[in-house]
Design brief:
It is found in: Membrane. By secondary structure, this protein is an all-alpha fold. The protein contains eleven helices and no strands.
Length: about 280
């Protein structure tokens, strides 16, 4: 029960990130470069302060994959939404994360039960049913490529978290080393930010990213990579529910059906038959 609660809190934090980013960019409260930069900077400051207060801080970089994968996710995520709508972006992101994390699980020899494959497929089908774009508008290739890069970055970042002995310290180091590179796009192409945009970026960075990612690294060692991948399919559903509650977006029958399919798929993925 403790693990379920912690995973649920983490998914809520991830969904809040999507809502904050969508609100800032869609309402022109911040540009992609400025939002990503302040998000990383505020997350780094929050985490460094906590680790310093805790004592035994270690800022030596031993693995560049952590900061680079975090950077790929944050930058790709922000810039992709300049040309992608929210639904298609979420579909590409979480589809890519699924593939990356299942591939990582297989490469490191993790046994993936049959029902987990079935559950993952059912949950992703529900997400596709909800978010698949309508009409014949072509998919923006640049935006799709950036979101696929973000998906690869987040998948790798999550796989690395399974081996984190000190989740808070590892997350703080990743943010600290990723921030200087994350500031470069904003330095060379500052695209503006309002006070509301700054508030959304700080909340996203310091709270739902910094503390949320530290909690994610805390629970990942207790989760098989394939379970962690399936659990993240709930994030778009939670984000859309948040949009309905807090932004006044419309509640539709497609959302209700998709939510049941995603949650049903997650439940199926946790079932392990005797044959497995």
């Amino acid at each position: 029960m403790r693990l379920i609660i912690l995973v649920s809190i983490t998914m809520l934090a991830f969904a809040a990130n999507s809502i904050f980013n969508r609100m800032a960019l869609a309402e022109s409260e911040a540009g992609a470069a400025s939002f990503a930069a302040l998000r990383l900077l505020s997350g780094a400051l929050m985490l460094v302060a906590i680790v310093q207060l805790r004592g035994q801080a270690n800022w030596r970089l031993t693995n560049v994959a952590g900061p680079l994968s975090l950077l790929a996710y944050v930058i790709g995520f922000s810039f992709a939404y300049l040309s992608l709508d929210a639904g298609l972006g979420a579909l590409i992101l979480f589809g890519g994360v699924q593939i990356t994390m299942f591939a990582g699980a297989l490469l490191r020899g993790e046994s993936v039960p049959t029902m987990r494959w079935v559950g993952a497929g059912f949950a992703f089908a529900g997400l596709s049913f909800l978010l698949w774009p309508s009409g014949t508008t072509p998919v923006p290739l640049l935006g799709a490529g950036l979101m696929l890069g973000a998906a690869l970055g987040w998948g790798i970042y999550s796989l690395l978290g399974a081996g984190a002995a000190d989740p808070l310290g590892a997350t703080a180091r990743n943010f600290l080393w990723a921030t200087p590179l994350g500031l470069l796009p904003a330095f060379f192409m500052w695209d503006g930010m309002s006070p509301i945009g700054a508030l959304l970026a700080v909340l996203s960075g310091a709270v739902t990213s910094g503390l949320g990612y530290a909690l994610w690294y805390r629970v990942l060692p207790e989760l098989p990579a394939s379970v962690a991948a399936v659990a993240q399919l709930t994030v778009p559903i939670i984000a859309l529910a948040g949009g309905i509650v807090f932004i006044g977006e419309e509640l539709t029958w497609r959302f209700l059906v998709a939510a049941l399919m995603v949650l049903g798929g997650v439940v199926l993925s946790l079932y392990r038959s005797k044959a497995d």
